Amino acid sequence: MYSGLPFGYMFLLVMSVGTFVSISSIHWLSIWAGLEINLIGFLPMLVYQKSVSESESGVKYFIIQALGSSLLVFGSLMAFGSSFTWDFYVEFSASKLGFLVLAAGLCVKLGLFPFHYWLPSVMAGLPWLSCLLLATWQKLAPMFLLLCLLELNSTYSLVLMFCVISAGSSLVGGFGGMNQTQIRALLAYSSIGHLGWMLFATLYSEWTMKIYLSIYILISLSMFVSLWLSDSGAMKNINNLKVSSMMQMSIMMLLLSLGGLPPLLGFIPKLMVIQTGTGGPWLFVIFVLILGSLMSLFYYLSLFFSFFLSMVKKYSFGSLKLSTFNVSLVLMINMINVVGGVFILMTNAIKFM
């Protein structure tokens, strides 16, 4: 992998610095500069590989991020025209359209509905480590900037826009994975659905959104590391997995956790979002979010039963031998998913007693 090469660590450092610059800035120009530094650090890692599909995904990602940056600059210029300052925490009451354009630019960068078309095609052509960075680290800066936008100017139009985007993202994440066979694209649709839940969580509780994001990053990290360790890079189709039964069970447990099946760990943040959202006026949006999550669970459970039946036929751990490290990692991942979810559910039950 490219991370083992000297320049790989440099690009990872540049990407991290760009994210920290964006999150810690209170000036629109420095926020935009931080996002561009992050892009400069991430792009070479996408186009380094010799594969045509990976280079194609890198070019697609560059074009989409350039479009998002253009909307970001355009929206900040509209806000500047009403207040004559680039500072972030200034009340731009005369430029509601500028705020909507800013939010649209950040949604393009995240891959939220209706700007979601690029994410599955880009992720389908990338190696596992690049998919991990795209699904986790690259979401941090735009997500926190959307949260700051909502705190800065929580007008009805912006809240309504967030509700429509979150509901649409959940439905896209459910419908998109129905007929999907590529596991990378399946995880991309799952990411779109989870982003819809996170965006809706920002309307009610910043703390809930941060917990949701943290648990999603933990589960995604476990998922991509499991896939990376069990695959040399040729795994494209779900039906052609050449891994041991233990690793298959680990991957399927993580998929069910991503789908939000109780009592696994992925169910906890969705329960928190439902608890905080039922006190507000957007109950229909919660219903749509749950509907999208149920559709995601449908194809996750279909995969789970197909894997389970194939393992029952084999009665063995497959032809692939697992090292002691891999076995320990698989057991730790399953313990975190099952025990973590049960522990948090029991803690909440004791509180309500």
Radius of gyration: 21 Å
What coarse outline follows from CA principal-axis ratios?
globular
Oligomer: single chain
For the residues shown, what is the average pLDDT? 78
Poorly predicted sequence stretches spanning 5 or more consecutive residues: 232-236, 315-322, 349-353
Indicate the percent of residues in helices. over 70%
User: What's the helix count?
Assistant: 14
Percent in strands: under 5%
> How many β-strand runs?
0
The number of domains: 2
Spatial gap, N to C terminus = 51 Å
Question: What structural category do the secondary elements indicate?
Answer: mainly alpha
Order of helices and strands: HHHHHHHHHHHHHH
Largest sheet report: none
Question: In terms of topology, how is this protein built?
Answer:
Elements: H1 6-24, H2 28-47, H3 52-83, H4 96-110, H5 118-124, H6 128-135, H7 137-152, H8 156-176, H9 183-201, H10 206-229, H11 245-259, H12 267-277, H13 283-314, H14 324-352
Subcellular location: Mitochondrion inner membrane
Membrane topology: Multi-pass membrane protein
Domain NADH:quinone oxidoreductase/Mrp antiporter transmembrane: 26-295
